Amino acid sequence: MPDPDRPRAALPAHLEPRLLRAFLAVADELHFTRAAARLYVAQQALSRDIRRLERELGTVLFVRTTRQVALTADGERLLPYARRVLEAQDALLAAFARGGPDADRPLLVDVNSPGLVTGRILERARELAPDCELMARFESGLTGAAAEMLAGRLDASFGRFAGLDPAVRARLVQQPVRYEPMAVVLPEDHRLAGFGEVPLAALAGETVYAGAGNPRTLEWTDLARHLFEGRGIEVAPPAPLAVGVEEFRRIMAKTRTPVLATVNFPAMPYTVVRPLVDPVPLSPLSLVWLKGLVHPGIDALRSAALELANDKGWLKRPGGGWIPAIDALIMTSRN
């Protein structure tokens, strides 16, 4: 701990806002694991940011024990300054966001594919905001959608937020929507097609397609690797993306490779969709949009997602359901 009688080193010319956000998250949660989940960063990275901020300010901001985290007197003193700085930054970003000065423009929303729960959310949002134009896009993959959002070509999308690069997550906002039970799409004459539900153990020895090689769906392939690890299931190697029902049918008939999906995957000719069980793997679905975006369509989407999640019980995690630890933290964190 710094000596109170020793003159402090000169303060830095500026402080990175990221360090102040790390400080506020820990100050609010008084728990490093919860704060890391709130910021969508690794706990080690959060600890490094706090130590760096303490070095730059020449003081200790938190007292840490194995049981609790508490603010020091200097931490309490920094708190109101940090809040004012970040509130000013957020106001600046909102003022210059695409949705600020032209909130009456159409809102572009990627719902991934027709027939999914994302489409139900979009339809409900249109009912809640009838004067707002919400335009659907159908481009599978949150990784690709995130790049489009950062480039200003898309406003919102849905998907597995934890699968994005941390630097990308830091520029986006997410609202948990649903724990989606996962499934496998099989040729109708596959050895497992007769099962009403497919135990994960029954897929041992199979090679399952999960979007490997598709740069738009990196988050989905990563989820599959987590799920398959230690279960004797292989992720199918990269292959050309089948676009359209007929191409999907043709490729499925040719390769006979099972496809990892969710239980609401739309029906395809000559295939069956079978839920996965023992355990039930869960795909975490979030509504995602650009940080600082101000638009009535975003408000409508958020309200619609919350309403449907509460009505349908989408955010009640099934007992024994499988989900990666980082996803579980993000799905229960606050924005």
UniProtKB/TrEMBL annotation:
<feature type="domain" description="HTH lysR-type">
    <location>
        <begin position="15"/>
        <end position="72"/>
    </location>
</feature>
<dbReference type="Pfam" id="PF03466">
    <property type="entry name" value="LysR_substrate"/>
</dbReference>
<dbReference type="InterPro" id="IPR005119">
    <property type="entry name" value="LysR_subst-bd"/>
</dbReference>
<keyword id="KW-0805">Transcription regulation</keyword>
<dbReference type="GO" id="GO:0003677">
    <property type="term" value="F:DNA binding"/>
</dbReference>
<dbReference type="InterPro" id="IPR036390">
    <property type="entry name" value="WH_DNA-bd_sf"/>
</dbReference>
<dbReference type="InterPro" id="IPR000847">
    <property type="entry name" value="LysR_HTH_N"/>
</dbReference>
<protein>
    <submittedName>
        <fullName>LysR family transcriptional regulator</fullName>
    </submittedName>
</protein>
<dbReference type="Pfam" id="PF00126">
    <property type="entry name" value="HTH_1"/>
</dbReference>
<keyword id="KW-0804">Transcription</keyword>
<keyword id="KW-0238">DNA-binding</keyword>
<dbReference type="GO" id="GO:0032993">
    <property type="term" value="C:protein-DNA complex"/>
</dbReference>
<comment type="similarity">
    <text>Belongs to the LysR transcriptional regulatory family.</text>
</comment>
<dbReference type="InterPro" id="IPR036388">
    <property type="entry name" value="WH-like_DNA-bd_sf"/>
</dbReference>
<dbReference type="GO" id="GO:0003700">
    <property type="term" value="F:DNA-binding transcription factor activity"/>
</dbReference>
